[in-house]
Structures are given as C-alpha cells and as structure tokens.
Specification:
Length: 242
C-alpha cells in the first residue's frame, strides 16, 4: 500500500502568522493533533502539533534548567526556549522544513520515517503543495481495514495447514517436530520449543493465516540442559479440569 491509499485528503492548515491561541482552538474544535503551516501561496513551510504547546509560560510548564546546564547549552538554546515558550505566532513554535512524503511513498517507508524522526504525522506533498497527510491513525485504520478484505476462497483446512507450516519453517524459532492439525479452521499446534517466546510467535504465525478461526497451543517447552519439560499452559488447564 502507498500513501495515497490511506492519507487524509482534507488537510487543515494555518499560516505562520496565525496566533497560538487560534491554532490551539482549531485543533480542539477539529479533533486533530497537528496542523500543516502554509504561506500565502500554499507552500508548506512547517508543521505545528500538540507537542509544541506542552512547554508554555501560560500554564507554567516552561523548562527550568540549572545554571551549570544553561552554561553548557549556551545562551542560544535559552533564547530558543524562551521564544518557544512565550511566542504568540505559529511561526515561533512550529517545526520548520518538516519531513514530507509523496503520494507514492510506500507504507513501510512511512513507518521508518516516523520512527527515525520520532514524529506522528507526515504531510503528503505534490511539488510544494500539500495534498494530504498521513498520521498514525491512518496506519491504524489501514490495519483495521484488512479485516474487511474478501476471504480467500482456497482457505480450506489442507491449505491452511500447509500455509501455517510454510510460515513457521522459515524462522529459526520454529518448534522442533512441528505438527499442525486443522479441522474446520480450528488449529492445533504441537511440537517442542526451547525458548518460551517462540510459543507466542508460533501462535501469531498461525493466527495470521487466512481462514484460521482459533489456535490451540499444545507446544511443549524443554530445557535443553536438564531435559526438564513443561506442557503448554492450555494443556495444563485441561489436565486440572479433568
């Protein structure tokens, strides 16, 4: 998937001269956590977000740095902090020259950019004009939308079993002696694991196969040094109930 398939097209923008109070009110009224900042010609010049309003003099949350730290950081940093905490216009608190993407940017690249730059939204530009915005909420909607995709017509028990085995065998955490039984979309996993985290990985791998309705865990954990083994938590519960 690419940006144009998930982006929000109706982008709410302000100008560099918009007041801080007005920008904050727009975010509250429109239920958004960030705004693009454009100049008179519509060119993107910055982004302002709720994070830019955390350190503000009005609410007494300005940074309080000790004398030694102020000396190390220098007067320039103190001056920048003062502007950010006391500024009255969006241009004084916004992130200038923000990271942007195009309509054809792949979702994997979008996620990488968000993580690398520690940001929650990316403006989508065509040339220097904003045509959309992709936020974490858009990514969440894309994940949720997968549940509405057309079911796989080949997702019968035999195909499900084969796909589960294929998806696990390519990983180094694959259980030893893996056995998969599927009846009417209900999966039973058995085999031996030597790392407890492999249990959840195996269950998730099975759950991600189209047509799987439920996964039963019968994986046995074995300590390779002592030979001690433990049944799966599910099998232990069944044993207690019987």
């Amino acid at each position: 998937m690419r940006a144009h398939q998930i982006m929000t097209r109706s982008v709410i923008s302000v100008t560099p001269d918009t007041s801080i109070v007005e920008a904050a009110n727009i975010m509250l009224k429109r239920h958004v956590s960030g705004l693009t900042v454009v100049n008179d010609s519509g060119k993107l010049v910055g982004v302002v977000s709720e994070g830019d309003f955390i350190r503000r003099s009005e609410i007494g949350t300005g940074r309080q740095r000790g004398r030694w730290l102020r000396f190390i950081l220098g007067s320039g940093k103190s001056a920048s902090d003062f502007v950010h905490e006391h500024g009255r216009k969006v241009s004084e608190v916004m992130t200038a020259s923000p990271v942007t993407i195009t309509e054809d940017t792949a979702l994997a690249e979008i996620v990488d950019l968000m993580e690398q730059n520690n940001i929650k939204r990316l403006p989508v530009v065509r040339g220097d004009q904003v045509v959309g915005i992709v936020s974490r909420a858009n990514l969440l909607q894309a994940v949720a939308g997968l549940a509405r995709e057309v079911p796989d017509p080949t997702a019968d028990d035999d195909h499900i079993r084969g796909r589960i085995i294929d998806s696990m065998e390519k990983n180094d955490w694959c259980p030893f002696g893996l056995n998969v039984i599927v009846r009417d979309g209900i999966v039973h996993l058995s085999g031996v694991i030597t790392e407890e985290r492999a249990r959840q990985a195996a269950i998730v791998a099975a759950e991600n196969v189209e047509g799987v309705k439920k996964v039963h865990d019968h994986l046995c954990w074995v300590d390779t040094m002592s030979g001690v083994y433990l049944n799966s938590p599910e099998d232990d519960e069944l044993a207690k109930a019987s």
